[in-house]
Amino acid sequence: MIPHTPTASVSMLRYRNQDWLVIHGSTVISVQLRPAGRGKQDLQWQVTLLYVRNEPEWQRLPACRRQSLKIVLCSFAPRPGDWRHFGSLDFWNADEFGSSVESRGGYCETWLSDPTAPDERDGELDLRYFQWRVARAKGTHFDIELSGSARPPDTGEAARAPSYLAGGSAFASANYDRELYLEETVPFGTIHTAVPRNAPDPYRHAEALARRHLKIPPVEYIQIHDHKNSSYENLRHDLHAEIHVGGYYED
Predict the structure, then answer these.
(1) Cα separation, 17 vs 52, whole angstroms
(2) Which of 75, 94, 144, 190 is 20 to 30 A from residue 29's alpha carbon, by CA?
(3) Domain ranges of the chain
(4) What is the per-residue pLDDT across 150-178, written as a single tens digit (0 to 9) for each?
């Protein structure tokens, strides 16, 4: 079930002149707390957006069987230490030749999946030139705006030409070929952190850690995961907490 979109939200994706529907729950702002020594934590933020095709012929299929587009923004800096400061992030006119990838808006990873294809192909799109920002902050929800030039890899020069989609936002930049453009209201929803196995109360330990380093909004619930049977030693060492905040519920 797809939850009702908040009244003041925006949702628009323009890509290949196709109709796309955002999947709430999978579309979320999250942060991973990683120990950085001397009691400090490295905050690794991520914005995940998931869309599925929504033309009438696709609506006959459940969302999990439709063609989908997943976009992940990660490894950007600065990394807000207070969740409310996320609203100040702006990489809209970042210098393409800036000092670091982080200062230019991090990485934009994009995948196009088609479960209806015979081989269920899943291809990574090459979003070479992009810019993004938080256009507005509304409580625990943030309006994300992203514009970029995307092309499927190894398709030849003709397919690489931008399609120049019509319309757009008042904030859109003329310096970018907006082959892919979106505005989406995205909730700050989850915090991930490791919890020592010997913690007397792993739930309280996880919440205290998140409050100390992020000044988090009200906690809805916490899930503790035990990967003791994992083949990866770093996952077996600790328990792993997933903290849901701000009225966010995952589908």
Answers:
(1) 14
(2) 94
(3) 11-189, 190-245
(4) 553 333 433 333 333 333 333 333 333 45
